[in-house]
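pasting for the record
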Amino acid sequence: MTDEATPVLLEKDGHVAEIILNRPERMNAITPELITGMEAALERACADAQVRAVVLRGEGRAFCAGLDKSNFARMAQPGAGLGDLTVRDRGDANLFQHAAMMWRRAPIPVIAAMHGVALGGGLQIALGADMRVAAPDLRVSVMEMKWGIVPDMGGMALMRRLARGDVIRRLTYTAEMIDAAKALEFGLVTEIADDPLARARQLAATVAAQSPAAIRAAKRLLNLVEEDREAEILMAESRIQMEIIGGPEQLECVRAGLEGRPPRFD
């Protein structure tokens, strides 16, 4: 039983914590409150000496449908209505980038169980996990181009380690929807399972049975190997996004998206 008034829930079973995106009526769409809820839940899990692994999942029909559409009208205003995205208030990241990067930077492994859809920012959140288990019917999209913007929640820093450059360009330029099989082929998910939550829990239990010190050390080492230019990429995401948001073409993308029609750029 979930409490829909709480956007993120934390549950614990032995040495495994489960962090649940809990806006099922909105397909777990991203709001600042959801991000700070994830942050608080992850901090609590990592502060618990008994927790050795985390399962991240979404309640209801989807893992995460991306940024809540109620934010897009504000995004189209000068300054995006979201403040200065280049301000670093979470280390080398802003709040929205932190939504994805927090999982990568957690001291313990995080396994995402993905079903329904993982769109835009929702996909970027999943990319921050150490592993991603997908349902066969999962659909994912680097959807930002639909709204006239670029991925700016750590997606560029994370995708570059998982997919070839031409694949990233294809997904970014087209905003096409792909299925779980194609996501696996492209490297965006780790494996496909009929019951992704059961498989994620199984993986988490296996991780939790290992030496806690060795697992934490392995994650630190793996992150260190992959961190080259990460801070530069995060800042570039924010700078480029600020150049686009609020321009006439981005305004048209937002209007078209909200009205359910193709955008017109002539």
